[in-house]
Amino acid sequence: MAGTTRPAPAESSPECGRLHRVEELIERWRAAAGAAGATDPAAVLRAGDRLLAGWREPHRHYHGVPHLRAVLDVVDAYAGAAGRPELVRLAAWAHDAVYDPRAGGDANERASAELAGELLADAGLPAPAVAEVRRLVLLTAGHAVGPDDPDGALLCDADLAILGADPDAYDGYAAAVRREYAHVPEETFRPARARVLRALLALPTLYRLPAPHARWESRARANLTRELTTRTP
């Protein structure tokens, strides 16, 4: 019926900008899946849409699309250090695909790995590549990476890059995480957060690859220590 067709957004409109950013992200997903050996383009596109829908859930104040994009950008920046950077990119897409702040332990990482396995298998990715993406996703539960695992190092370094941000950006990250746990009373959240911070500080190194280590290690430890000593018991 005349007058019911929705006009295309103007090239300079905010909606058009959002659409372009989404299309750019999906294209990055398709490129990584293709490089990893996916054989079903339609299933690849469905998988990307499914993952992106998860990343856009309204309860994600930190673990949302900006975090996904930031992790992908770090992976791209240091891709030369990886053996199979395309698999690291797929794992970056999947690593917080399931994110429920009410879940305990490593439930989110396990559910994310399971979802990644299903989606990538449906897209025709070879079984060894699917298994490797699942393994990489599971590493993000504790960020404990072996010395001979450059792909795991790259993913975990990218995931933790925010810790090495300038203090204002770090504080914004910490505040966003707190909003994700708004259902948790302060007297419960603070000691739980302190345990997370101490576990990170106890890692032999927060960043395993030489360039991220040189760039972020010192500032990340300063940020974590500052939060631990000023905001938690």
Report on this structure.
InterPro entries: HD_phosphohydro (IPR009218). Keywords: Hydrolase. This protein is an all-alpha fold. Helix content is 65%, strand content 0%. It is globular, with a radius of gyration of 19 Å. The chain folds into two domains: 16-146, no CATH class; 160-233, no CATH class.
Q: How many beta strands in the DSSP annotation? A: 0
Task: Sketch the major β-sheet.
Answer: none
What general outline do the C-alpha atoms trace?
globular
Query: What are the secondary-structure elements, in order, as H or E?
Result: HHHHHHHHHH
Label the structural class. mainly alpha
Q: What gap, in angstroms, lies between the N and C termini?
A: 64 Å
**Please, what is the oligomeric state?**
single chain
**Helix share of residues?**
55-70%
Strand percentage: under 5%
Radius of gyration: 19 Å
Our count of helices gives 10
Indicate the mean pLDDT.
93
Supply database-style keywords:
globular, mainly alpha, 0% strand, 65% helix, 233 residues
Write a concise synopsis of the structure shown.
With 233 residues, the chain is mostly helical. It contains ten helices and no strands.
